[in-house]
Write a structure and sequence with these properties.
By secondary structure, this protein is mainly α. Helices cover about 55% and strands about 10% of the residues. A hairpin with a 2-residue loop joins strand 4 and strand 5 (about 70-75). This is Reverse transcriptase domain-containing protein.
Length: about 280
């Protein structure tokens, strides 16, 4: 399977071992070179990155398999960046969360240089800077990494690191004292708690991408992988595939929309969604 955006191309393969996957990737790369030669495109092998996804405990020699393309050797990494999101080999999102917190800290430090409780922009302008710059920078891609495998929200220990950044921002915006509860600051600044904001963004993303061709293609490959591995491990045909995290959230989003449709008149539906925080995470308040 291949996917990409503009000049960022990714090849994804799966198999019984990393060695088998590396061999498949080498064959796929040969097809890419043939396509590039035909259409006058060029690839940059020195920028290639390789990662093996596995949750096997302990180290494994198989997971150290590398790819050799002519005179270039590509060694596997523990994490890579895909369209701005850090993906680790165990798909736990730990590196991405650490990176998100770091970006949030940098952004709030920049905000602190131009605003204070006694000087600088007004509360309204400071809030706008947070919602338009700091929060989108910190939560970039949270529609993907903000979901647990079962479709639930981030665990409190991970979410708490992000909440600390928002807490600093709220105190900078409102001039609140350290002992004032975060919930009061969020209410006064009219800013949603991060768990609700992330969940609303996930619902919206799931709703607008549900009928996209790429979503259908992804689900087709997921079902194909399930069938292949079911036959390999001789699973019973009655064993059904578990829903993915995004499938869980799409189902939840549909339920919320149906609930809104039954309780809110159509002309007020958009305003109700906006009031609930279901909006583009990169949009202005």
């Amino acid at each position: 399977m291949a996917f990409g955006f503009v000049d960022d191309t990714n090849l994804v393969v799966w198999g019984r071992s990393a060695r088998e996957n590396c061999y498949t990737l080498e064959l796929a790369h040969g097809k890419c070179l043939a396509w590039a030669k035909r259409y006058g495109a060029e690839f940059a092998p020195e920028k290639y990155q390789l990662i093996h996804f596995s949750r096997k405990r302990g180290s494994s020699e198989d997971l150290k398999e590398k790819i050799v393309l002519e005179d270039i050797t590509i060694n596997p990494r523990s994490e890579i960046k895909v369209l701005g999101v850090l993906v680790d080999s165990r798909l736990r999102w730990g590196p991405q969360l650490a990176n998100a917190v770091q970006k949030g800290e940098v952004a709030i430090n920049a905000l602190s240089r131009i605003t204070s409780s006694i000087w600088g922009p007004s509360v309204r302008s400071s809030r706008l800077l947070y919602t338009a710059i700091v929060r989108p920078t910190m939560l970039y891609g949270s529609q993907v990494w903000g979901i647990r495998p079962n479709g639930g929200s981030l665990v409190k220990s991970l979410l708490g690191k992000l909440e600390k950044v928002q807490n600093k921002s709220l105190r900078r915006i409102t001039g609140g004292y350290k002992r004032i509860p975060r919930a009061i600051l969020e209410r006064e600044a009219e800013i949603l708690p991060l768990d609700l904001y992330i969940q609303a963004g996930i619902f919206r993303y799931g709703a607008i991408t549900e009928h996209k061709p790429v979503t259908t293609e992804i689900l087709r490959h997921i079902n194909l992988m399930w069938d292949l591995f079911s036959r390999s491990y001789k699973r019973r045909a009655t064993v059904t595939r578990k829903a993915t995290a995004m499938e869980h959230n799409r189902h939840e989003a549909r339920s919320k929309m149906e609930e809104l449709n039954t309780t809110v008149r159509p002309r007020n539906l958009i305003s109700q969604l906006q009031g609930s925080g279901i909006r583009n995470q990169d949009s202005r308040p």
